User: Fold this.
Amino acid sequence: MTDILDLTAKQAADAVAAGELDPTELFEAYRTRAAADELNAYTWVADEAPAAAAAAQPAPLAGVPLAVKDLFCTEGVPSQAGSRILEGYRPPYTATVVAGLHRAGAPLLAKTNQDEFAMGSSNENSAYGPVRNPWDHDRVPGGSSGGSAAAVAAGLAPWALGTDTGGSIRQPAALCGIVGLKPTYGAVSRYGMIAFASSLDQAGPLTRDVTDAALLFRHMVGRDACDSTSLEFPEEIRLPSAERLDGIRLGVPAELSEGGGIEAGVREVFQRALAKAEELGASIEECSLPHAPHALSAYYVLAPAEASSNLARYDGVRYGLRHDADEGLVAMYTHTRHDGFGPEVKRRILIGTYALSSGYYEAYYGRAQQVRTKIAEDFTHAFERFDFIVTPTAPTVAFKLGEKTADPLAMYLNDYCTVPMSLAGIPAISIPAGVSDGLPVGFQLAGPAFSENRILDASYALEQAFGFDGSKARR
Ligand code: GLN
Assistant:
């Protein structure tokens, strides 16, 4: 048999269901592999394989183990969200999506490293050290779901959960050469996800291929009484099977695919990908998202504003770190937050608090909300003419560790192509389309709300045509 670590999650699930693979053996193989994690992708790994479930019916995910971004609460298991302020925090409950996947037969293998509170694009904002990119250990894996992306790309996990607020699933998927899906806002429960920006945060799969993304996503969706913004997904998630793209109209927004910000090597891979889509029968036309160039500016008001409010709960009183020097309550708050938060988180709290303060609220927050609406309208108009909008996922390939840490604005530009979809609440996927300088390049495909089945189908057809080989990163 081929090495069990080489099986995709779907192949492993099929092998277990056929009685050819023992799920405990599968779990142990990944545990052993995880113990040799040279990327710092994991912040916690399970001690032992879960006791075999004596279920009457085999679970649909058949015991294929799951790596989970550390900001998902997992009962009794450290859930630190990349932050010092939550060091050692073991929640008394498990996030809805993780619990649901567990019930579907995907046991928790490990928690993955991430940028602190999901703020970042390189995983260098983690209090638990940076993660390395399996394609080149001197480079970043992207962020903020960098540990999840690196783990899947390196074969440390069959599949993983991440979250995306402005690009944190899609950009690390692109930089690590794997598939990452950001669902429609509301498709997946946020209950038990440690919050960054609640109107944008969405959980999604990071997987080796599109089929695995569909399989995992199928067991993530649904309305949850514990999250009032969650919705029933209108249809069952199907495993993709499309071979052609006949009749599919792809819109290429000039604003997100041209210009100096996007590296020449990335543009080349993107153009080759468009040519392949055309060979599969798709029509390709330029389109316009006129407000998309303002998406980052709006995002960097709205996301910090929501974050400043969400992070007010870390005060040393309820849980997590407490720095108490017997100098009174306010000093305790101040020292706790001073010691517990890293510099990027502090920067966002400052920006967000300022943007929400009386006298500035309308000028910043109110204005950014108006821009957000304009961006959503741009997509609505575009989808009258096109089935999908396609762009490069990230403007560059994986960059060197330390290369952008001194320049937050350069770091923020990583999400130039992904933030517009987040603000519009629409689904988007990144699939690996090729390499530039030996490093993976992602192709982003976005569709209207709840078009995930169609997105997965089109991505599947493209995936076969791109023929991307990710095995190099697993050696
Ligand atoms: N990189 C973006 C940020 O730092 C997006 C992060 C995310 O999607 N969680 O906010």
About this structure: The first strand starts at residue 42 and ends at 45. The mean pLDDT is 96. The first helix runs from residue 9 to 17. The pocket of glutamine is lined by residues 118-121, 144, 164-168, 196, 303, 415 (CB under 6 Å).
